[in-house]
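dude i think i finally got it to work??
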Amino acid sequence: MAVTGCSQCIKYMLFFLNFIFWLAGGVILGVALWLRHDSQTSNLLMLQLEGNQAPGTFHISVYVLVAIGAIMMFVGFLGCYGAIQESQCLLGTFFTCLVILFACEVAAGIWGFINRDTISTELINFYDAAYMKAVDPVETTSRQAASKVLAVFHDTLECCGKGDDNQLFKAVQSSLCPEKTVPVDPLISQSCHMKLRDLFTEKLHVIGLAALVIAVIMVFEMIFTMVLCCAIRNAPAY
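look at this
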């Protein structure tokens, strides 16, 4: 053990923060898997209409989160081991990984903020395409397929229609909407557009909060890593 005094305190603080970072990676991995297999999003994103798959932007984002969680767990372990062993090489590698991860997180945050409505908008457009075919008064195979797609939307989100439905939709509403979505209170929105926006806004808030907490931890880890490296370099044993 080369470092003493305040440097030794920083060493154990860094170990503790890295352990928290490792746990955060596990949490992100778990949240990503939950988002991937969540019944609401899975039911909607597995839909097909005339051979066209529902937009998969959300699933791509989830797979990115899975990769980030796994990398964070590896980097957290590297930091813990480097701090305990007082290895400048491991701590330097850990610091480099942290800088890269932090830059990627900032870039992903900016991209996510700019495109925060993309996922819900894509699914709303997919819903509207099915809606237009389902209200077609002519009985066709396209109408039957679109009706099945709308039924899944309505059952999953407990909604009914777009909120400004025309007479054509009202004529087939009873067969497309589950009975439980019949408005009890006229002030309660049953619009599927609104339900889709609320669904993904809620999930993005969870992701954003987790990213903010991790970013703060990473900043402290980078500071402590630099201080510990300097202390190890200046220690008499080295």
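The chain is about 75% helix and 0% strand.
im so relieved honestly
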